[in-house]
Amino acid sequence: MDSRSHTHVTAALRLCLHALLAGLLALVVVRAVSEDAADTAAVVAVTLLTAALYAAGAVRSSAVQPKGSVQPKGSERPKDPARPRTSVQPGTPAGAWWLGGLWMLWAALLVLSPDALWVAFPLYFLQLHFLPMRWALPAVVVTAAAAITSFVVHRQEIEPGAFIGPLIGAAVAVATVLGYDALFRESERRRELIVELVATRADLAEAERTAGTLAERERLAREIHDTLAQGLSSIQLLLRAAERSLPENAPATPHVRAAREAAQANLAEARSFVRALTPPDLEHGSLAAALERLCARTTAPELTVRFAVSGTPVELPTPYEVALLRTAQSALANTVRHAAARRAEITLSFMDTSVALDVVDDGRGFDPSGAPVHERGTGGDGGFGLPAMRARAGSLGGALSVESAPGQGTAVALTLPLPDTEAERAA
């Protein structure tokens, strides 16, 4: 059931309660008039007062009840500062006083007419609705006892029906209200679960879009670097060599110099495009800072992640930084998902001719030779673990090694040769 069905059911129950109470009060008046008792006028007067008080409370309650709101008995009701505390609502002092006034008028009516005991049945529902459960149950018991007492006093006899009727009515009222409350709470839990699932689905869709965007940015950056940037760098080197080989006053020298400067400007523009398309973690800091942030935000139960730098850091080309960062992210993600490790360490090492990244954990480990290549270290998630790392390493002339054994942790090492610094400076 959704909130709209709750609203319709609650409105129907409220109308039935109004009709039941009005019909029972009318029955009291009709019986008193038809029997032409001595206290008929008093019965009519008290009955009219009871009906008037009930109608005033019902109107007041409907006037302040928000449209479409459902507040079953026993549910938590948020405090609304805009709602006056004098409104006839469940849980308010005005509601308790209103209900007490109704009960006193009904008690007076019981003294005057034995037919008033039937009004106890709608009073059960009102007490269960307007009073906290710890007060509602005793109030229902007192109301049933008053009805039984009225029957015995007026009829001057004790019959099983005098006890069974009010007690069964009280039991039915309590079971009905508690059952409705249970159904409402279950419906609310399902509604909250649906809302949570919808929000989670939206988050997953957003995460997939973000991942796709980042992957496309990375692919474009790699393509621009491997094609346009490298081609422009080669053109610039060739034009520089041609400019040096020409005589100083050769007619072609200005044209060669202009072509070399244009290639240099376009190379700088291409590299700016590559920098703009790099992963966000590398946009505002060095690779070491990005890896340190990765360790800081990686969380798992009882897992501690540390980061260290070895050697003298040097500036790396963007594809190198992207490959090292993505490898660290993938290896650390496998550690969190599958290793059940307590400690993991990421070490970035700068050597004379190469740069290395080591990701080591003390988790459960695995047998690298005991599973298909596309499943190793990925948990069967489709091959975006070790195969992707090996592909990145191979595209940059590097190597990826994995050392692991069941119960002995896992070590993933990526080694990339440093680019030719002379050529980079010339470019």
Notes on the structure:
The chain is 63% helix and 9% strand. It has helices spanning 3-35, 40-64, 93-112, 120-130, 133-155, 160-245, 253-276, 287-297, 318-339, 386-395, 421-426; strands at 304-310, 343-350, 354-361, 399-404, 410-417. Strands 1-2-3-5-4 form a five-stranded mixed β-sheet. Helix 2 packs antiparallel against helix 3 (93-112). The longest helix is centred in the middle third of the chain and has 86 residues, at 160-245. The chain starts with a helix and ends with a helix.
Task: Give descriptors for this structure.
about 425 residues, elongated, 5 strands, disordered N terminus, alpha+beta, 5-stranded mixed sheet, disordered C terminus
Question: What layout of secondary structure does this protein have?
Answer:
Layout: H1 3-35, H2 40-64, H3 93-112, H4 120-130, H5 133-155, H6 160-245, H7 253-276, H8 287-297, E1 304-310, H9 318-339, E2 343-350, E3 354-361, H10 386-395, E4 399-404, E5 410-417, H11 421-426
Parallel strand pairs: 1-2
Antiparallel strand pairs: 2-3, 3-5, 4-5
Helix pairs in contact: 1-2, 2-3, 3-4, 3-5, 4-5, 4-6, 5-6, 6-7, 8-9, 9-10
| Main sheet record | 5 strands, mixed
Radius of gyration: 41 Å
Q: What's the rounded overall pLDDT mean?
A: 77
Order of helices and strands: HHHHHHHHEHEEHEEH
Helix content: 55-70%
Extended strand count = 5
Q: What is the rounded distance between the termini?
A: 69 Å
Counted by DSSP, the helix tally is 11
- What share of residues are in beta strands? 5-15%
- Which descriptor suits the 3D outline? elongated
Low-confidence stretches: 1-6, 64-86, 372-384, 421-427
Class of secondary structure makeup: alpha+beta
